[in-house]
Amino acid sequence: RIHLMAGRVPLGADRAAVAGEMETTFTENLRYAAELLAQEDMIGLEEPINNSITDPRYSLNTPHQGKADISPQTAAILEKVGRPNLKLQLDLFHCQIMDGNLSRNLETYFPLIGHIQIAQVPGRHEPDSPGELSFPYIFELLESLGYTGYVGCEYAPKGDTLEGLGWLRSYWESRGLQHGGTSKAAE
Question: For this UniProt entry, which residues form the secretion signal (predicted)?
Protein backbone atom coordinates (compact mmCIF):
# COMPACT_ATOMS: atom_id res chain seq x y z
CA ARG A 1 0.00 0.00 0.00
CA ILE A 2 1.27 3.39 -0.93
CA HIS A 3 -0.19 6.85 -0.39
CA LEU A 4 -0.50 8.70 -3.69
CA MET A 5 -0.56 12.40 -2.88
CA ALA A 6 -3.14 14.62 -4.58
CA GLY A 7 -1.10 17.79 -4.64
CA ARG A 8 -1.53 21.30 -3.38
CA VAL A 9 -3.35 24.28 -4.80
CA PRO A 10 -0.64 26.55 -6.27
CA LEU A 11 0.35 29.56 -4.18
CA GLY A 12 -1.84 32.52 -4.98
CA ALA A 13 -4.34 30.46 -7.01
CA ASP A 14 -8.06 30.49 -6.32
CA ARG A 15 -9.01 26.93 -5.25
CA ALA A 16 -12.28 27.05 -7.21
CA ALA A 17 -10.57 28.31 -10.35
CA VAL A 18 -8.02 25.47 -10.50
CA ALA A 19 -10.15 22.63 -9.06
CA GLY A 20 -11.24 21.20 -12.42
CA GLU A 21 -7.75 21.18 -13.92
CA MET A 22 -6.27 19.68 -10.73
CA GLU A 23 -8.91 16.95 -10.66
CA THR A 24 -8.31 16.08 -14.32
CA THR A 25 -4.54 15.87 -13.80
CA PHE A 26 -4.90 13.85 -10.62
CA THR A 27 -7.38 11.44 -12.24
CA GLU A 28 -5.03 10.84 -15.18
CA ASN A 29 -2.09 10.33 -12.82
CA LEU A 30 -4.08 7.85 -10.74
CA ARG A 31 -5.01 5.78 -13.78
CA TYR A 32 -1.35 5.61 -14.76
CA ALA A 33 -0.24 4.78 -11.19
CA ALA A 34 -2.97 2.14 -10.77
CA GLU A 35 -1.67 0.26 -13.82
CA LEU A 36 1.89 0.28 -12.48
CA LEU A 37 0.78 -0.72 -8.99
CA ALA A 38 -1.35 -3.56 -10.36
CA GLN A 39 1.78 -5.06 -11.96
CA GLU A 40 3.30 -5.26 -8.46
CA ASP A 41 0.05 -6.34 -6.73
CA MET A 42 0.01 -3.08 -4.75
CA ILE A 43 -2.78 -0.82 -3.53
CA GLY A 44 -2.71 2.94 -4.04
CA LEU A 45 -4.28 5.01 -1.26
CA GLU A 46 -5.94 8.43 -1.49
CA GLU A 47 -6.07 10.41 1.76
CA PRO A 48 -8.22 13.47 2.33
CA ILE A 49 -6.20 15.87 4.52
CA ASN A 50 -7.92 18.68 6.39
CA ASN A 51 -7.32 22.14 5.04
CA SER A 52 -8.38 23.86 8.26
CA ILE A 53 -5.30 23.08 10.34
CA THR A 54 -2.86 20.70 8.65
CA ASP A 55 -2.50 21.94 5.06
CA PRO A 56 -4.71 24.76 3.75
CA ARG A 57 -3.50 24.14 0.18
CA TYR A 58 -3.97 20.34 -0.01
CA SER A 59 -6.50 19.62 -2.75
CA LEU A 60 -8.34 16.61 -1.22
CA ASN A 61 -9.93 17.49 2.09
CA THR A 62 -13.00 15.28 2.61
CA PRO A 63 -13.97 11.76 1.56
CA HIS A 64 -17.04 13.19 -0.23
CA GLN A 65 -18.08 16.27 -2.16
CA GLY A 66 -17.74 19.08 0.35
CA LYS A 67 -20.25 21.80 1.12
CA ALA A 68 -18.32 24.27 -1.03
CA ASP A 69 -18.36 21.72 -3.89
CA ILE A 70 -15.21 23.23 -5.37
CA SER A 71 -12.45 20.71 -4.88
CA PRO A 72 -12.09 17.16 -6.15
CA GLN A 73 -13.03 14.70 -3.43
CA THR A 74 -11.78 11.23 -2.82
CA ALA A 75 -14.88 9.04 -3.29
CA ALA A 76 -15.82 10.77 -6.54
CA ILE A 77 -12.28 10.51 -7.85
CA LEU A 78 -11.95 6.83 -6.91
CA GLU A 79 -15.26 6.16 -8.67
CA LYS A 80 -14.17 8.11 -11.75
CA VAL A 81 -10.82 6.29 -11.97
CA GLY A 82 -12.56 2.96 -11.41
CA ARG A 83 -9.56 0.82 -10.47
CA PRO A 84 -9.95 -1.87 -7.79
CA ASN A 85 -6.41 -1.31 -6.51
CA LEU A 86 -7.10 2.31 -5.53
CA LYS A 87 -8.63 2.80 -2.08
CA LEU A 88 -9.42 5.43 0.53
CA GLN A 89 -6.92 6.05 3.31
CA LEU A 90 -9.22 7.42 6.00
CA ASP A 91 -7.37 9.39 8.66
CA LEU A 92 -9.90 9.87 11.44
CA PHE A 93 -8.10 12.99 12.68
CA HIS A 94 -8.64 14.75 9.34
CA CYS A 95 -12.14 13.35 8.89
CA GLN A 96 -13.28 14.59 12.31
CA ILE A 97 -11.90 18.07 11.68
CA MET A 98 -13.46 18.43 8.22
CA ASP A 99 -16.76 16.62 8.66
CA GLY A 100 -17.25 14.94 12.05
CA ASN A 101 -19.88 12.19 12.16
CA LEU A 102 -17.24 9.47 12.06
CA SER A 103 -19.70 6.60 12.53
CA ARG A 104 -21.67 7.55 9.42
CA ASN A 105 -18.52 8.25 7.44
CA LEU A 106 -16.96 4.89 8.39
CA GLU A 107 -20.16 3.06 7.47
CA THR A 108 -20.66 5.00 4.21
CA TYR A 109 -17.10 4.75 2.95
CA PHE A 110 -16.26 1.32 4.37
CA PRO A 111 -16.25 -0.41 0.94
CA LEU A 112 -13.65 2.10 -0.28
CA ILE A 113 -11.36 1.98 2.77
CA GLY A 114 -7.93 0.49 2.26
CA HIS A 115 -6.27 1.89 5.40
CA ILE A 116 -7.23 3.70 8.61
CA GLN A 117 -5.11 6.19 10.53
CA ILE A 118 -5.81 7.58 13.99
CA ALA A 119 -4.92 10.48 16.28
CA GLN A 120 -6.91 12.28 18.95
CA VAL A 121 -8.59 15.55 18.02
CA PRO A 122 -7.65 18.36 18.55
CA GLY A 123 -4.10 17.77 19.82
CA ARG A 124 -3.08 14.99 17.40
CA HIS A 125 -1.75 12.92 20.27
CA GLU A 126 -2.39 9.38 21.55
CA PRO A 127 -5.93 8.00 21.32
CA ASP A 128 -6.28 8.03 25.12
CA SER A 129 -5.31 11.70 25.45
CA PRO A 130 -8.10 14.20 26.19
CA GLY A 131 -10.12 14.99 23.11
CA GLU A 132 -13.20 14.58 20.99
CA LEU A 133 -12.91 10.94 19.93
CA SER A 134 -13.83 7.73 21.75
CA PHE A 135 -11.42 5.20 20.33
CA PRO A 136 -12.85 2.14 22.14
CA TYR A 137 -16.15 2.94 20.40
CA ILE A 138 -14.40 3.51 17.04
CA PHE A 139 -12.43 0.24 17.32
CA GLU A 140 -15.63 -1.69 18.15
CA LEU A 141 -17.36 -0.08 15.17
CA LEU A 142 -14.47 -1.06 12.88
CA GLU A 143 -14.67 -4.64 14.18
CA SER A 144 -18.46 -4.73 13.66
CA LEU A 145 -17.99 -3.51 10.09
CA GLY A 146 -15.49 -6.34 9.50
CA TYR A 147 -12.37 -4.19 9.13
CA THR A 148 -9.34 -6.49 9.13
CA GLY A 149 -6.67 -4.08 7.94
CA TYR A 150 -4.05 -2.18 9.85
CA VAL A 151 -4.74 0.93 11.88
CA GLY A 152 -1.90 3.40 11.48
CA CYS A 153 -0.98 5.57 14.45
CA GLU A 154 -0.17 8.98 13.00
CA TYR A 155 0.14 11.12 16.09
CA ALA A 156 2.74 13.09 17.99
CA PRO A 157 3.47 11.15 21.20
CA LYS A 158 3.54 13.29 24.32
CA GLY A 159 6.50 11.25 25.62
CA ASP A 160 8.65 8.44 24.27
CA THR A 161 7.31 5.85 21.84
CA LEU A 162 6.79 3.02 24.35
CA GLU A 163 5.03 5.34 26.77
CA GLY A 164 2.94 6.60 23.85
CA LEU A 165 1.69 3.06 23.19
CA GLY A 166 0.32 2.59 26.71
CA TRP A 167 -3.19 3.13 25.36
CA LEU A 168 -2.73 0.10 23.10
CA ARG A 169 -1.66 -2.18 25.95
CA SER A 170 -4.72 -1.02 27.94
CA TYR A 171 -6.99 -1.61 24.95
CA TRP A 172 -5.62 -5.12 24.37
CA GLU A 173 -6.08 -5.95 28.07
CA SER A 174 -9.68 -4.67 27.98
CA ARG A 175 -10.30 -7.05 25.06
CA GLY A 176 -8.64 -10.01 26.78
CA LEU A 177 -5.65 -10.05 24.43
CA GLN A 178 -2.04 -10.63 25.38
CA HIS A 179 0.41 -7.72 25.13
CA GLY A 180 1.42 -7.62 21.49
CA GLY A 181 -1.13 -10.32 20.63
CA THR A 182 -2.46 -11.11 17.19
CA SER A 183 -4.34 -7.84 16.81
CA LYS A 184 -3.56 -5.50 13.93
CA ALA A 185 -4.35 -2.49 16.11
CA ALA A 186 -1.07 -0.72 15.41
CA GLU A 187 1.54 -0.72 12.73
Answer: none
